[in-house]
Structures are given as structure tokens and as C-alpha cells.
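ASSEMBLY PREDICTION REQUEST
Request ID: AP-0331
Submitted by: J.K., bench scientist
Number of chains: two
Total residues: 609
Priority: normal
Notes: Please return the full assembly, not individual chains.
Input sequences:
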Amino acid sequence: MAEPAHGLGGLKYDPSKKARPQELNVFIAFLIIVAAFEILGRLIMGESFLFNTREGTEGLFNTQRLSIIILQVATVGIIAIGVTQVIITGGIDLSSGSVVGATAMVAMSFAQTALVNGNPNPKAIFGDWAMDLPIFVPILVGLGCGLIAGLINGALVAYTKIPPFIATLGMMVSARGFARWWSTGNPISFPTESYNAIGSGMRPVFIFIALAVLFHLIMTYTKYGKHSYAIGSNEQATRMSGINVDRHKVLVYVIAAMLASIAAIVVSSKGQTAQANMGVMYELDAIAMAVIGGISLQGGRGSIIGTVIGALIFGVIISGFTFLKLDAYYQEMVKGVIIVGAVVLDQWRQKSRGARV
Amino acid sequence: MSDFILETRGLTKRYGGVHALEDANFTLRHGEHVAVVGDNGAGKSTFVRQITAVEQRTAGDVIFDGAPVNFAGPLQARESGIETVFQTLALADDLDVPSNLFLGRELFKFKLGPFSILDRKAMREKTMEALKTTAVKIPNVDNPIRNMSGGQRQCVSIARTAAFASKLVIMDEPTAALGVQETAQVENIIRGLKERGVPLILVSHNLRQVFDLVDRIVVFRRGRIVASLRRDETDGNDIVSYITGVKGGVEV
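STATUS: Completed
Returned structure:
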């Protein structure tokens, strides 16, 4: 800083004492957790978590495990990007998992292929007119589902002034109901080649990274980002500053729901099928990623980078437990502890911050 | 052009049966600094709230900048050139100083609807300029407001008002919660406004401050304006007797 260290009432500013960015702390936590699994792995399992110890395979790292981790994280991570924006404005979105289910069902209905091994598609939802449609049709229909869900969420939050928790809880229940009603509970399968391609291989990871970079830039450099932080920080002041807070909130919920529908397209393409139960609990995993990444549930603080690192931590922990051959039951239980622990940590951080002022 | 930047005629506000403000006739000349004083509940804040349209008046006219106005809300008042510093701070704690100063009137490098790209460098430079002209010293403008003292935050809030002030500034007890040095700082900003010819309505409990800063003192008592005195034609005792009702003769 070129400014002299002058201050009010003799206050001095010392740039070297500036607090470390939150993201760095989260990243250090990430490294510690990875190291812990590496050590535990060597002690308990006698093999490395990170590195390639297998005979006859090339490479320094255990690329197979690493790619599974990041692939697992990518789908929910896409949702977490949207959830992060909602929480920064001081809201919450519990509907993303159900929006994934509903979107997957609808999008897949428009992505089916007419002939399966020479026979008519046994899972066909619509008639011949909806078969073998170009790839943009299911994508646009899917995004449309997100748009509608987001508009309803946003309008409820912004204009009826009911708490976001309740508004999106309603959507969570209704969208899941819609997903079941769509095909009376039957799975929808046999998509076209081009639809399959969306989620094949490592593509979900690239989609996740591209969206994370895009929204990081948006949150940092645009009016949308600035106003999102302002609303979460002091909604009344933001309103008094002439910003249309209600319209902004609708936009935030629309973006979150549309990111959930992108995740739905990816996950249904990857699994080559859509089921009404797709995405159950995704919303909580996404919120957990954001919380682990250092977001404040009071709003105003957090970042996309933090959430991405939070998502990696989440993936490493789940994969680490599998690696240590811990039961899935334990994983669920520990997941809950992690979410609550991250929020408690945030409370402590805020308290110590408050004491200093 | 009228002599007055602001004029109220018969301004009245009732809350149910309570006459919070009764028939207030008030004028403010271009460049004039006026203090509004009075006991608690005398109607000072009610008066200000009618002008800034935080509340809608029961009766009367407000003439601002030569034309009668009917603002729908504080936002519209602000857009018309009335900048207000409220008793409660209107700042976003998690944003830095430039973001707060420019909240709602950001500068852009590239317009693209909600995704317009902010011109952070220009906003930072203009912030430093604004802080310089208002003589506000902030150790580091890139820090979130959260990490600053109450006085610094109030200074940012006032600097924001002063920096964008076009036609009229209203301050409702701007130094109520501040320490000695911080109060001095705010008073300097007010003197700066005077030099720049920006008219001001200052609601204050602090008579020392009032006599230091303003040209004219308007006394409210029980919802009515009971006196309007030039600073050099009155003194503290005089004002206090109007405030307490010894003078003014509006005893009920």
C-alpha cells in the first residue's frame, strides 16, 4: 500500500499483520487431511493414499484414485457453485437435489433414442416425435426446468418474504414429487450417443472447472458479485443504496437452480439413465462443501475458490474412508459431524473477530 | 430560481392520535447550514423522516429545489439529490471502503446488465480523492468495514454522503456514538461541506457543536417549530429555554 500508515485516533495500519485469506486456511486444512490419510494408509493398510505403489503401473501418483475423487466431487461441486452464491446473499437452497431429480427425468425424456439394438426403446416416454432429437433439445429443456424452479424459489424468497429455508424446502418436496410423477416412478433410459457423451470420461470435471472459473470471475469482478456480497452483508443498506434487492435475489436463485440442472444433465448422461431418486441429499453435500470451504451462513462472506477447495476436502474424506475400508454407515455419520464442525468453526472465527474490533 | 433549496409548508405527521409533527414551516437557503434541536420526542427525527420520505407525511407540502415534491421513498429522495446519514449505519460490513462508497452507483469498464464488469481501479482512486477532500483518514481502504472502529465506519458513511452530495445533506445525530477525536473529524467534514456551499440540516443534541458549525438554529418542541434563531443573535441559555418551554409559549 502506498498510503502512509496514518490512522484515526493514532490507529496504525500494519500490512504485514493483515489476516490470511480464508481460502489459504482452507487449503492448508486440505493438505493436512490428505497428509493424514497418507499416514493412516501407510500405518493401517500398508499402502499409499496418494502415490502409485503398484507394481507394473507407471506414474508417480495413484491417478486412478485421484480421478475417482475428483469425478465424484464434480457433479455435486457444480451444484455447490450455485449454493455458494445463494448463501453469500444470506439465503439457503435446499431444493437443488430435487431439482437434479426432476431435471434428469425431463431432460432424459427428450434425449432418448428410438431403437435399442434394433428394437423399439422399451423405456420410451413420448412417441416417435421425441426420439433422436438433436443434443441441444434435452439441454435446453433441462435448463428450462432449472429456470422455472429458480424463478419460483426466487420469487417466493424475494416477494413473499418467507424464509429461504421454507421456500426451498417446499420446492425440495414438490420437485421430488414431480420427478416421481413424470414417469410414475419408472426409470428413463437409453439416451442418444450425443447425450451420453456429455458426462463420459473426465468431462464432468472439465465442466465443473469451467463453471467454477466462470463464476469465480463473475463473483469477483462484476456488479452481480458485488451486490450479492452486499445483500448478504447488510440487506437494508443495500436496499437504501438503490439496488433492486428483490430482482437480484430472483437472479441468484435462478442461477443456482440452473447450475443444479446442469449437474442433472451431467449425472444422467454419466449414468445413461434417469431415476426419480437422483440427487437425493445432493443439496446437503453441496451446502457442506460450501461450509467446509469457509462460507458464512450469515451471508456476506465466502468464495467460489473456497467452495472448490471445500469440495476437494469433501471428496478426499469420503474417498479416504473407502480407502481405509470404513463402512458406508460411518461415512454418513462422519459427514454430519464435518458439516456441524465447519459451522461451529465459523462461529468461533466470528466471535474472535468480534472481540478484536 | 427560488431563494430556498428546501421549504416545508404546514408539514404535519400524526401517528394515530399522536401529533408527532404539527404545521412545520421551515426554510433552508442555498449553502445554508441549519441545526435542528429539541428534546427527545420533540419531532426532530419525524421532521427529517418526512423530508427524506422514509415516512409519508399526513399533510403539508415539501418544496425542494424550486418544485413541490412527493417522494415515494428515501431512494427517490436520494436520486433527486438529498443525501442522508442515518442514525443506524447504512454500510455493508463485508465490503471494503470503495465498494461501500460506490454501492448502487458503481463505475463500470464494460456494461453487460447484471454482469457488468466493475472498474475497481477507478473506484479506488475516486475513493482516495473523496477521503482526501473530506479529510477522512482510513488506514487501509481495502479492508472490509467490519474491521474498523465505529468512528471510522461513521466517517466512511459520512464521506459517502459528502462525496456524492449534490443538493442537500441531512445528518441525524452523526456524532452520537463517537469519541472526541472522531467527533472532531466529522465536524471537519461538515465544515468542508460549508466551504463547498452544500446546504445541510444537522440534527444534534450537542449545543457546543451546533454553535460551532451552523448558521441558524431551529428549535422543536412538542412537534412544533418554536424558534428559528440566527447563531450570532442567540446563545446557549436562550436555546435551552426554548427547548424546555420556558420561552416560546406553546405550553399545552
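REVIEWER COMMENTS: Residues 22-48+61-356 of chain A form a domain with the ABC transporter involved in vitamin B12 uptake, BtuC fold (CATH 1.10.3470).
SIGN-OFF: pending second reviewer
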